[in-house]
UniProtKB/TrEMBL annotation:
One Pfam family linked to the record: Mqo
Record family assignment: Belongs to the MQO family.
Cofactor: FAD
Reactions catalysed according to its record: (S)-malate + a quinone = a quinol + oxaloacetate
Pathway entry: Carbohydrate metabolism; tricarboxylic acid cycle; oxaloacetate from (S)-malate (quinone route): step 1/1
Keyword Oxidoreductase in annotation: yes
Organism: Nocardia jiangsuensis
Name of the gene this protein is made from: mqo
Stated name of the protein: Probable malate:quinone oxidoreductase
Keywords: FAD, Flavoprotein, Oxidoreductase, Tricarboxylic acid cycle
Amino acid sequence: MSATLGALLRQLQPEWSISLFERLDAAAAESSDPWNNAGTGHSALCELNYSPQNPDGTVDISKAVDINERFQVSRQFWSYGVQNGLLGEPSRFINPIPHVSFVHGEENVRYLRARYDALAPHPLFEGMEYIGSPDEFARRLPLMARGRDFRDPVALNWTDAGTDIDFGALTSELLAHLGRTGVDLAFGHEVLDLSKQSDGQWLVRVRNVRTRQTRTLISRFVFVGAGGGALPLLQKAGIKEAKGFGGFPVSGQFLRSTNPELIGQHHAKVYGKAAVGAPPMSVPHLDTRVIKGRNGLLFGPYAGWTPKFLKDGKNTDLFKSIRPDNLFSLLGVGVTELSLTKYLISELLKSEAGRVETLGEFVPRARGKDWELITAGQRVQVIRRKGLGGVLEFGTAVIAAGDGSIAGLLGASPGASTGVSAMIDVLQRCFPNEYEGWTPKLREMVPSLGVKLSDNPELFREVWSWTSKTLNLDTAGVAAPAQV
């Protein structure tokens, strides 16, 4: 997020002085690292939690459409970046991979058919296929078909327009561009405190984690893009807009295949349905990954719990974030999210055999020796005040001070996939005097700025064609819907 905002500002106001501070010694070593997430270009093509079923059996696609719209904004900015030297060879960070929704059981099959009926006619989801044939299932997903009992009905929603993204590589390339253009990039530096001055500017105290030396900067604007570390910094800033917010940390693990033969038998990102009580970020999925030109295979996530807000955080993170203004929010969630608590306990007690058994829903002949357990990045779900208590939100939230002098980002998925639209929102909210003058340049970077592609299919096809060609994603072109 910070790298994206910096790149946008560098294009809009190249004369501005920008400094970026990262506590770790490397770029994108936390949640954006390619092995700390599934690398899904979240555009609601396969994620079933973005298209819930209504009581009458119909499917609500409003959230799916919104997320897809926002992902198209990211594709446009990345295409601009490739054409204008901000980014290098696209295959280093983005590659075409089919996105697939998978269910089994009669009731779930009916739901997936209703989802297809709702999405396939929509301009942003053209090319989606509905597959209920076991033979076609086996042809497209041989690893998932081998050993499967097809007396239990299965169904797929298949889209060739999906992507796998190495957000670590993407972030590193954006930061490299910022460094080349004079931005002060300080790794191994931790922001200790933020305090607002009488003139409206911010005093930022930073410490070099190696030498322990501190320095102080003055800035007219601060963006806190610290992942799980954002909430504590926004609390230190003392802005009223952050009051009442809390964070619920959820760790995750994946099984990564060590068998090249298995990796070669699967080429898709396949998402299933979440277990009862599981948070949306815990939807099981079997993912092809493309990292540094090599294919990999992940399954997960297996949820866990730790009080840390960052993978490289401290066990005191959660407790230090508890304040009088968010105490009732946290307590309220503790009462209302008992199913989540039960789910996390069951996940924590899961053995290696239990993890392989869960994998068996996707890979019926899974063997533990073909997989290794890796720890993914830490996610901090947003807890927002609601009435006298609080509510747990799964998504991404931008918090900005009323005067626009500071903003930060909280939450998880769809996160980085919709980072460009989130950062344009920051620009609009925090730089109201400059935004109108920036609009022509922003439209150069994002031609659909301010336009709903859902309402303008011709423009969608134009930007889709441009981004697919520029990002070398032509194999993911729009096609007519099919049913098999």
